[in-house]
Amino acid sequence: MADLTRTDVAHLAALARIDLSDAELDRMVGELAVILDAVATVQQAPIADVEPMSHPMPIVNVTRPDVVRPSLSPEDALAGAPEAEQQRFSVPRILDED
Amino acid sequence: MTTQATAEATLPLEAALAAYDPALGLEVHVELNTATKMFCGCPTEFGAEPNTQVCPVCLGLPGALPVVNVKAVESAIRIGLVLNCQIARWCRFARKNYFYPDMPKNFQTSQYDEPIAFDGFLDVELDDGAVYRVQIERAHMEEDTGKSLHVGGSTGRIHGATHSLVDYNRAGIPLIEIVTKPMLGTGERAPEIARAYVATLRDLLKALDVSDVRMEQGSMRCDVNLSLTPKGADRLGTRTETKNVNSLRSVERAVRYEIGRQAAVLSSGGSVVQETRHWHEDTGVTTSGRVKSDADDYRYFPEPDLVPVAPTAELVEALRGTLPEPPVARRRRLQTSWGFSDLEMRDVVNAGLVELVEETVRAGASPAAARKWWSGEIARRANAAGQDVPTYAASLGVAPAHVVELEALVKRGRLNDSMARQVWDAVLAAEGTPTAVADARGLELVEDTGALASAVDAVIAANPEVAAKVRDGKVAAAGALIGQVMRELRGQADAAAARALILERLGQS
Question: A1-46 maps to which CATH number?
Fold first, then answer.
């Protein structure tokens, strides 16, 4: 998969909000290309007669009734938050979206 | 990219539509009224204290596994059916990946290329009775996001904020997204059709009882997609998506504004930028938001934690049996059975009186009387009080039975029309039932022909000149005499009977 470019990797990094240095970008282009090559090999498997599936078990319609179950207390819910304020999760500002 | 507050140039609607054809698409998000969230048992109550309706599933904590709410699936299928959609025999959820703090999982569980309902339509009736068929592309299941509070900025907006505070109570509430196909050929009626579509959808979802559909609380939200094509061109133009247009009036205004703005851009030689735009309720304009991400950027893939949804034909048919009558069909049926003209029916519909008239007719009144009494004085008063008639009538304790009783008094000949109006005004002033009011005010038509005859004779004697005119064949002059007879009898006479007697006495019958 030689067509993975540095620009593609930079774009993916931006979507995932991962700040990569130039050196890391260069390294990731090589590493991701190896992974894509491996996937390309899998894609050659003969699947013409195979139904697509997203789950190993052939089951459908696993549901639950619309009945309320206890929620966490706000204290427990916020316990893992690095920062909390006014019983809410405090997160850094995000400027480029509204 | 931050919000630009400056207003942009716009062309007047007529000028814009003389040169361009609008293509309109609407995406409506509806929060279901299930007791619990889409994938967990947390409650969905509106207005609860922050982060009191959250659990490991909707907070996206490691190891937590979602399970689908059966009622949400059934509501989704019923919505699909009422929109005349095909229901998927097998479909999956998909992860829509994006990193933004309103979803703690870093993805929204949604549906991508396998929506539960697709290829439908909704007939929308406009104010003048014309019907426009809106084609429905799809209706799919997903979950709502959390709510952010931006801190440190001047107006609570994100621009200038130092950080944001997030409440996840709303994250995971079942959401159905209903997407239309591009509506073409709407021309000058585009703003009106957009509004009528959202209004019809709202009424339909209310009748289905699947959502509160309260736009002001955000349980129904609308995004407006709009593009313009130069007249005669056969390719759609670049579209914008105006987010969160959350009232019927705003839907109409936002469509009108975007038509004018895009026309101004195009006619000055510019090109429309494909972007998300923000609607400003206060100023009635849209402003540029972020450049729209490609669907590729969301890296959708089938949700591995959930198994497919495969509604059986039996379930779909059973749910079809629970659907309410479509609003347009219902109106046609009622209009025929009530014998109303198109105009009369439209007035009743626009005044929100359909249910009240229906109830009143069921209680025993004639359709004409039901329409007449619910749309006269009470409508003026309700309007002045800023309420619709049903709400206002309920607050006064005025019920369909009162209309039935009033009509009966008229039919029995106890009250004439002007007396009935007087009685109705008193009923609206909380003086009691029609019969009680008529009794208390001593209102009763004079049936004693002796009293009528002596009043007629007295009036003729007192007005020799008018009487002479009538004798000479000027029948119209009798009006003045009838008025005096009615006054003489304090309005409690049958005007037709008085007229007949006057003409008889003066040799004109």
Answer: 1.10.20.60
* CB-CB neighbors (< 8 A) of A95 in chain B: 2, 158-159
Structure tokens, A57? 């078990």
Under an 8 A CB cutoff, do A71 and B2 touch? no
Cβ pairs bridging A and B (under 8 Å): 147
Q: Is the ipTM of this complex over 0.90?
A: no
The CA distance from A71 to B17, in Å, is 53
> Would you call B6 exposed, middle or buried from its count of C-beta atoms within 10 A (0-12, 13-18, 19+)?
exposed
Cβ separation B41–A67 shorter than 8 A: yes
The reported pTM is 0.76
Q: Render each residue's pLDDT in chain B as its tens digit; 509 residues.
A: 344 445 689 999 999 999 999 999 999 999 999 999 999 999 999 999 999 999 999 999 999 999 999 999 999 999 999 999 999 999 999 999 988 899 999 999 999 999 999 999 999 988 888 899 999 999 999 999 999 988 876 665 666 678 899 999 999 999 999 999 999 999 999 999 999 999 999 989 988 999 999 888 889 999 999 999 999 888 889 999 999 898 999 999 999 999 999 999 999 999 999 999 999 988 889 998 876 667 778 999 999 999 999 999 999 999 999 998 877 788 889 999 999 998 899 889 888 899 899 999 999 999 999 999 999 889 889 888 888 888 899 888 999 999 999 999 998 888 888 889 999 999 998 899 999 998 888 888 766 667 888 888 889 989 998 888 888 888 888 888 888 888 888 777 778 888 888 888 888 76
Structure tokens at B163: 């950080």
CB contact under 8 A, A93 and B100: no
Give the residue extent of every domain in chain B.
Answer: 13-320, 327-440, 449-505
Asked whether B198 and B175 are in contact (CB, 8 A), the reply is no
Chain B residues with CB-CB distance to A59 below 8 A: 307
Give yes or no for B36 touching A (CB within 8 A): yes
**CATH number for the domain whose boundaries are B449-505:** 1.10.10
State both tokens at B41: 């048992």
Chain B residue closest in CA terms to A76: B55
Alpha-carbon distance of B394 to B400, in angstroms, equals 10
Of B43, B69, B159, the CB nearest to A63: B69
